[in-house]
């Protein structure tokens, strides 16, 4: 099966076109999407989450230790937390009475905190976690529905508060530690490296640490019963050996093992194109549940049982989620309006992978995508789509076509230098479309801004020109 036919399967049911909003106007760049989530009054340095999950009654008992620093004078600290009850809270070691306003947790400070001052929070909470209602459906913590009471996390973009108190912004990135207790015979898989695993008579303890930095929506925890296996690859950019890990239910192990088998080759190809891998580990988790789409959770991409069939039908999605670790996870968006920088790049990574394995070339795929885009309704500017359209199917493909248009204009040498340079310049940080346009402009003596502005801000679909000499 060629890339194009697989892509038709994967993207066959595009998101419905939604009405434009006032935020579509590029002049309103300062208006933040989903302004009710997150706070700019502080930034987070580290989360230490201590979690005990009982699948028999689906309850979570949590204690969050949070290190942060104030960005302005504070008398209250605002966090996001949905559907769970807080039973105690401390600010800088002093007990405080928490308040709630919708899905906002409000902690008064025992004394004023001046701008630039580090502080600590400790929050004890509990309840039956579940997905939160968002404009994109139910998102966040969920149960797989299998016989073992497994759980998963799929939080993009607004689901992180479904299982821990956080500053839910895509650009508030922090270090994470997970200390997870589950019943004996169950496992826990989370972001980062496994540091400790121990058992008692009735429980098992799993400790993971991820220095990140990581946005809250990319934090993940999977519990249940898994087969865990490692794989090895070489980081082409550094020459270093890399060890990855996968986890999947035993009954799906044959299909999953086959469908994920080319992860090492993907890893080596992508480190050659994009630069060294930015994190300490990577792997895929397959859960015993059907998922509409895989999820890019940082260092542990999530796939449903419907994404493994033993025939690599969905391999383009395996490539897509791995590419996100450079573009989307390591280099994050400042705001959700710039999500084409995540999804356009990851989609173009799919096209590069197809080209690499001798299926359809990126140029063939780009021109097929262009013709499909030309037949769809107009009215989408991918660098200012409006909050209801950040997952519009056209944003993915037009974002990838934007990159292909840049490649055609500049040639491979300068194009891949732009991709590597973009990650190198913003590794571990956040950036936006304006920064990318300026970055691309530094790699060419002629002005590239008109081409990028046409692809990113015009409602009209620009033409794809034939290759030119770089």
Provide structural commentary.
The longest helix has 18 residues, at 393-410. The chain contains ten helices and 22 strands. The protein has 470 residues and is an alpha+beta fold. The chain has two domains: 3-33 and 336-457, Neutral Protease, domain 2; 44-323, Sandwich (Immunoglobulin-like). It is globular. Helix content is 25%, strand content 31%. It has an eight-stranded mixed beta sheet, with no helix packed on it. A hairpin with a 3-residue loop joins strand 14 and strand 15 (203-214). It has helices at residues 3-10, 253-259, 263-274, 315-323, 340-356, 362-375, 393-410, 412-426, 433-441, 449-457; strands spanning 42-54, 59-70, 74-80, 85-91, 94-96, 99-101, 104-113, 118-127, 132-134, 137-143, 151-154, 174-183, 187-190, 193-199, 203-214, 221-224, 227-234, 241-248, 283-287, 300-304, 332-333, 430-431.
Proportion of strand residues: 25-35%
What is the annotated CATH architecture of the largest domain? Sandwich
Whole-number mean pLDDT: 92
Give the class-level CATH name of the largest domain: Mainly Beta
Flag low-confidence runs.
Answer: 8-29
Largest sheet: 8 strands, mixed
Q: Report helical residue fraction.
A: 25-40%
**Helical segment tally?**
10
- CATH topology-level name of the largest domain: Immunoglobulin-like
Q: Structural class of the secondary elements?
A: alpha+beta
DSSP strand tally: 22
């Amino acid at each position: 099966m060629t890339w194009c036919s697989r892509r038709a399967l994967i993207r066959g049911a595009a998101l419905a076109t939604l009405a434009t909003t006032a935020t579509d106007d590029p002049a309103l760049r300062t208006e933040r999407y989903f302004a009710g989530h997150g706070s700019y009054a502080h930034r987070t340095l580290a989360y230490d989450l201590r979690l005990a999950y009982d699948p028999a009654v689906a309850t979570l008992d949590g204690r969050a230790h949070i290190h942060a620093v104030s960005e302005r004078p504070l008398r209250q600290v605002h966090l996001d937390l949905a559907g769970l009850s807080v039973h105690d809270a401390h600010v800088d070691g002093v007990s405080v009475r928490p308040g709630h306003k919708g899905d906002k947790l409000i902690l008064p400070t025992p004394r004023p905190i001046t701008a630039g001052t580090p502080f600590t929070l400790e929050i004890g909470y509990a309840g039956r976690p579940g997905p939160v209602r968002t404009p994109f459906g139910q998102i966040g913590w969920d149960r797989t529905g299998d016989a073992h009471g497994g759980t998963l996390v799929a939080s993009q973009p607004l689901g992180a508060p479904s299982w821990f108190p956080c500053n839910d912004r895509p650009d508030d990135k922090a270090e994470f530690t997970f200390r997870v207790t589950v019943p004996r015979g169950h496992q826990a898989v989370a972001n980062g490296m496994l540091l400790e695993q121990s058992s008692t008579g009735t429980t098992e303890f799993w400790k993971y640490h991820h220095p990140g930095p990581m946005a809250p929506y990319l934090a993940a925890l999977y519990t249940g019963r898994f087969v865990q296996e490692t794989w090895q690859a070489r980081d082409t950019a550094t020459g270093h050996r890399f060890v990855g890990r996968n986890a999947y239910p035993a009954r799906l192990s044959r299909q999953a093992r086959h469908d994920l088998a080319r992860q090492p080759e993907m890893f080596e190809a992508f480190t050659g194109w994009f630069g060294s891998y930015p994190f300490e580990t990577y792997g895929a988790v397959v859960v015993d549940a059907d998922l509409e789409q895989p999820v890019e959770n940082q260092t542990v991409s999530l796939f449903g049982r419907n994404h493994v069939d033993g025939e690599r039908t969905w391999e383009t999605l395996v490539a897509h989620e791995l590419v996100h670790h450079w573009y989307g996870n390591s280099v994050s968006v400042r705001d959700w309006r710039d999500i084409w920088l995540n999804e356009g790049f990851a989609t173009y990574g799919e096209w590069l992978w197809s080209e690499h394995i001798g299926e359809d070339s990126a140029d063939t795929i780009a021109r097929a995508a262009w013709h499909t885009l030309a037949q769809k309704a107009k009215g989408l500017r991918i660098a200012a789509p409006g909050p209801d359209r950040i997952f519009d199917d056209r944003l993915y493909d037009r974002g990838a076509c934007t990159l292909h248009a840049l490649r055609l204009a500049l040639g491979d040498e300068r194009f891949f230098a732009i991709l590597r340079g973009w990650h190198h310049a913003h590794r571990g940080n956040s950036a936006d479309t304006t920064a990318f346009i300026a970055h691309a402009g530094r790699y060419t003596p002629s002005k590239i801004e008109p081409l990028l502005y046409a692809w990113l801000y015009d409602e009209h679909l620009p033409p794809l020109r034939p290759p030119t000499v770089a």
